[in-house]
Amino acid sequence: MTKIDIISGFLGAGKTTFIKRLIEEAIAGEQVVLIENEFGEIGIDGGFLRDSGIEIREMNSGCICCSLVGDFGRSLEEVLTKYHPDRVIIEPSGVGKLSDVMNAVAKAASTAEVVLNSAVTVVDVNKCRMYMKNFGEFFNNQIENAGTIVLSRTDVADPKKIQAAVEMLRSHNARAAIVTTPCSQLTGSQLLEIIEKKDDMAEMLMREAKEHMHDHEHHHEHGEECGCHDHEHHHEHHHEHGEECGCHDHEHHHEHGEECGCHDHEHHHEHGEECGCHDHEHHHHADEVFTSWGLENVPPMTREKLESILDDLAYGTKYGEVLRAKGMIPGTEKGRWLHFDLVPEQAEIREGAPDYTGKVCVIGSELDEEALKAAFTA
Prior knowledge:
The protein is of the alpha/beta class. It has 15 helices and 12 strands. The chain has a 7-stranded parallel β-sheet with strand order 3-2-4-1-5-6-7, sandwiched between helices. A 5-stranded antiparallel β-sheet has the order 8-12-9-10-11, with helices on both faces.
């Protein structure tokens, strides 16, 4: 089965640069055919791409999404028969409608062994507003039908302009992944993964949270005395420091001769209970009321600010009852990214590779979504 990737974008948006990164760094070992359809008489990028070792079927007499739709199936069949490619990249005219190209691929798939693998639209962040206003019929169609939107020239754009562009794009496409990180900071493999796979960070965290709660209930069913959030981890950590067991305010509880300290520990012991994690009954049923909150295109942030937010998430209820959180956020220093992982009473920040955009996901119950959004965007 041959994969078909459509890389669309308005004139001068940076489609060819994006394709070059894929070819050189991600799919160099594949047999690739590029179908290029420039609007006009001459395919201006044909020579450059031919030098990269890619076979080109140039169709310059018109636009693949209009006059050449009828010929597209025959052209594709010829390409498949002659080159037996693993992948076909279609670079349609900048003034074409992405939906028409996708329909042409779907029609061809009815008779050929091909599958539409991805639909990408490259957008110049500096021209987004102007194109949307002046060429809405074509520009908006490219946005609305894209699975991935790549913002180009974000390395020289003001962060506020990037955020404004993201909001405009989101008003036309709520589901697409929007790449705001400069492509020069991402590898070709990262770009390929972005366009081929949907972001499942929220699903992954939700699964981890439910598994954690299942383990928590399992421990209590077997008569274990204490099941604090992430107890196994904290138990090991505190024993390294000579403590028997601990959650928040650990030293305070040991001063009172207690062996295990969770929230409001003394209160529970007064009532003859062996262990009480905060709002224990609530957490035993939390898998039934979990919600997830996510935010993409998170602006750059200092490490100190992120530490402050994570402290509130891990040790308090300012944002609700948080069970799991994860994120990748650009730092204020160029090229520096802050990755974090959080469970109750523990948060880790480390420097990591750039992601396609700054993003955060929080799993918990009774989450204050407005407060979370304000914290990560202020």
